[in-house]
Amino acid sequence: MRVSYNWLSEYVKLSVSPHELAQKLTMAGLEVEEVYSTLPDFRGITVARVLAVNKHPNADRLSICQVQTGKENLQVICGAPNVAAGQKVAFAPVGVTLPNGVQINQARIRGVDSYGMICSEAELSLSERADGIWELPASFQVGRDLHKILEAEQDHLLEINITPNRPDAMSMIGIAREVAALTSTRYQYPKIKVQENKERTSRVVGIQLRSKSCPRYSARIIRNVKIGPSPEWLTRRLGAAGIRPINNVVDITNYVLMELGQPLHAFDLSKLAGPRIIVRDSKPGEKFVTLDGKERELPPHTVMICDAEKAVAIGGIMGGLNSEVSEATMDVLLESAYFNPVSIGVSSKQLGLSSEASQRFERGIDPSGVIRASDRAAALMAEYSGGEVLQGIVDVYPVKIKPKKVPIRTSRVNLVLGTNLKTNFITKILSKLEVKMKAQQARVPTFRPDLVREIDLIEEIARIYDFSKIPTKTQSVVDYDLLPNREDQFNSFLKNQLLELGLSEVLTNSMIAKRDLEVIGDQIPVILRNPISDDMNVLRPSLLPGLLKTILYNLNRNMPDIRIFELGRVFLSSQVQDPERQPYFLAALINGAGVLPRWDRQSLPLDFYDIKGLAESFLVKIFLDNVDLILYDNHVYFDPKQSISVIKNEEVLGYFGRIKPEVVSSFGIDSTIFGFEFDIQKLYRYTKLDRRYRAFSKFPYTEKDLALVVDKNISAADVKALLSETGGDLLAFLEVFDVYEGQRMAETKKSLAFRLRFQSMERTLTDSEVNVLFNKMIKAAEEKLQARLRE
Hints:
With 791 residues, the chain is α+β, with helices and mostly antiparallel strands.
């Protein structure tokens, strides 16, 4: 970014030279790559007066001029069409060397002698192009050195390399804010006073936001503008900033952009259809002609600014040819908006189209500065184009973007910087950046989107305090004690338990082929917009497809006995970005022999009870043995005849069983595979890793068996829960050891046999105590479950 020293001085008092300012900014993180003067070294050029101009006798385009230099009158040959008697001009006498290296000598041109040269601005390196000689102001004294006269108006330009994380510094006000903080002075915004007429803006235009990428959009109307050239001061400032002047209205929008950092856009109101502006996302295959005359096909989710009939601009990037301001424009709609940085960045890159506006929007402008910039431009248009500003401004801002709150600790600041700064001093430094600190919490203004963490604020303190003041230490205290992440610890704990059970960990790709999911049908995967290949065009909704491919890989290499597991994220389809739709899962598959062959026995294949035993052993090792195992017949991967759901407090934690044969065969596997899959977040919720040892009772127990006949629709878990509740603390152990259905049992009934163990931690129980409790349990089953004792 190019910054004018003189322009900057209007917003902040500059007590240092341009080169000293460049040093301060560079040390504060805003690297100044170059400082150069707008006034080239052309010493020896004087102010002269043209006394007479006569046509050259031997050349149609040359003139013979009589020039008064203050010391003498000289004859000069001039080819400029605008030279005229009475003008004050820049005169280069014989012997002077111009900034471009040309030395002025006495010459004879078409038979006429010339004793010097009348100069243009281009020949003095003051402008890139010139149409004729430079006519100087009448106030300039003849004979004076022109360079010394112009030194009073000399400016210096600073080329500053603004890093992508500092959009707040991409304006004159932004740099003024930095300078004020570095020099302990104050900066000021330009004074804005908008004269409005009685016609209301809201009656002329309405705004509809239909894109989430545009949180704020405002519009003003300026009527009866007169399009023409901008005043000299404005064009010079735009030129200093590297922007080509166009006309007064467009130049004002560019001026406010460089001054306040807020991109604006001016539409010709007469070219807009309907009384409203619609902000929407681009349609599939939509094309648009931008101001540069090129037709572009718009990528998906590009923000479009539209009238009632058509698109008129690509939001935040470039306006359209169909609504540009021209010499015939009389009424202007002035846009000032805030667009989502990510959206603008993606669209700009996909379109291959970058502008001053898009460079700021994609970094993140200040959403709170939208109205100030609009008012500033409207006031300037009224002053320099004769426009009339309508009353009010239409501002659609559904959800206000509030300043962020970031915790900051004085102890942490001093630990990182190696300083002994006091809290009051830190508060004072941050206040220079308009960051308010209270009770170890900082309120970050909306113009600083880069300050999101405590370390970001510490960096700000360091650069404003001055890096050179931070003491250098030969020894530093480094704290290696990192607070453990409980979830990561839990994941490691789960892996270790499975490794101890003899399983091997594998890692598979989270991107899989959509065709691998066709056999299951029900799962809707998250589809990638720009996949690497057809083998990786969706995100996995389960870990099992990757594990099945791993088994196939091993089977193809004659490794049939496989026991593997994986812990990783799965991606569940959702219309919104929700972290809970990307949970961590844990899955395992086993294949091959359940019992390996030996000299005294034959190999036995795996069956359902192998995976059941493995799953139960795993749950016991993670202290989740008190769960319910319920038959489940609706899983997309597991065989409904051999599938069990693991339930805790009526919440399904996972499943285990046999993988469906059709799923296995779709991967090219010709064997029986068993496995399980658990949701880790749910396991974490119910697993208590801080269990402590509890002494067992030293008193003997009494054991009884209880067989109850109940309806078939009543589960053993329901009966067990009732007996446990009734038995209370004295019921030390309860398990089901027999389930019977068949002869001498009604078709709608079944028999459940339980083994009960009664024991106290304090004394030996008497038979009467046990019998009373035992009968109480029988009675509860009879009353609440309509159970009866089996004969």
